[in-house]
């Protein structure tokens, strides 16, 4: 299983707490597995864009459970104050709240950086479970979706899940496994995967759906 996304998030947070890097990787893997189980390939999103909020949310909830206060960089604090003014002025002019893209443009920063700033502020204080962590109309993730299941709090369980996932992948037929690897491990869209393999997008979509169903069924069976 490609752990690049998890390692990147763990590296980001290890400098903001006293937890071991490998422990944060283990926690992030829980979020990665949750993202794989929830991913809907029919919406055409790259898997990395979908998975990062789950990985990040898992790590942040773990740190909060451990009693850590998430430190917000001074630059982000300044951006947060500026964003408050942007929202107020935008509401006055347009009679609605700006979306993330509009706020990032007003602050002259990338959309990704603004979403990181917003997520940092959200995780500093208790929030409604219905609070969203992005502004993607087709992939509007709520905070309650990122809260880890109680049964996944153990590192041992996480390691067992990783093993089950690898074993389940090995049981798939080659074509289906290759398609899942392109979509999930190499982070290609369905169209890019179809072009790489010389097949139709419809075929890729069907194989992804079938493969995910088989993975979930196999992992559930092996869990008992």
UniProtKB/TrEMBL annotation:
Entry keyword set: DNA-binding, Sigma factor, Transcription, Transcription regulation
Gene3D superfamilies: 1.10.1740.10, Winged helix-like DNA-binding domain superfamily/Winged helix DNA-binding domain
Record-linked PROSITE patterns: SIGMA70_1
Keyword Transcription among UniProt keywords: yes
Pfam families on file: Sigma70_r2 (PF04542), Sigma70_r3 (PF04539), Sigma70_r4 (PF04545)
Superkingdom of origin: Bacteria
GO biological process: DNA-templated transcription initiation
SUPFAM superfamilies tied to this protein: Sigma2 domain of RNA polymerase sigma factors (SSF88946), Sigma3 and sigma4 domains of RNA polymerase sigma factors (SSF88659)
GO MF terms held by the record: DNA binding; sigma factor activity
InterPro entries: RNA_pol_sigma-70_dom (IPR014284), RNA_pol_sigma70 (IPR000943), RNA_pol_sigma70_r2 (IPR007627), RNA_pol_sigma70_r3 (IPR007624), RNA_pol_sigma70_r4 (IPR007630), RNA_pol_sigma_r2 (IPR013325), RNA_pol_sigma_r3/r4-like (IPR013324), WH-like_DNA-bd_sf (IPR036388)
Annotated RNA polymerase sigma-70 domain residues: 23-36
Protein name listed in UniProt: Cyanobacterial SigF-related sigma factor
Source species: Microcystis aeruginosa NIES-2549
């Amino acid at each position: 299983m490609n752990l690049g996304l998890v390692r990147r998030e763990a590296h980001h947070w290890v400098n903001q707490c006293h937890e071991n890097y490998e422990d944060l990787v283990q926690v992030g893997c829980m979020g990665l597995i949750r993202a794989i189980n929830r991913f809907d390939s029919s919406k055409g999103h790259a898997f990395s864009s979908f998975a990062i909020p789950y990985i990040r949310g898992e790590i942040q909830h773990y740190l909060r459970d451990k009693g850590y206060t998430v430190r917000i960089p001074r630059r982000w604090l300044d951006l947060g104050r500026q964003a408050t003014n942007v929202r107020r002025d935008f509401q006055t002019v347009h009679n609605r709240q700006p979306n993330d893209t509009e706020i990032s443009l007003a602050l002259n920063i990338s959309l990704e950086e603004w979403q990181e700033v917003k997520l940092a502020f959200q995780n500093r204080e208790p929030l409604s479970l219905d609070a969203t962590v992005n502004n993607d109309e087709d992939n509007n993730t709520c905070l309650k979706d990122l809260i880890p299941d109680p049964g996944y709090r153990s590192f041992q369980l996480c390691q067992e899940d990783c093993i089950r996932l690898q074993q389940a992948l090995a049981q798939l037929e080659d074509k289906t496994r290759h398609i899942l690897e392109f979509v999930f491990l190499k982070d290609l869209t369905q169209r890019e995967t179809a072009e790489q393999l010389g097949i139709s997008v419809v075929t890729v979509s069907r194989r992804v759906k079938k493969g995910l169903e088989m993975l979930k069924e196999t992992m559930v069976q092996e869990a008992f």
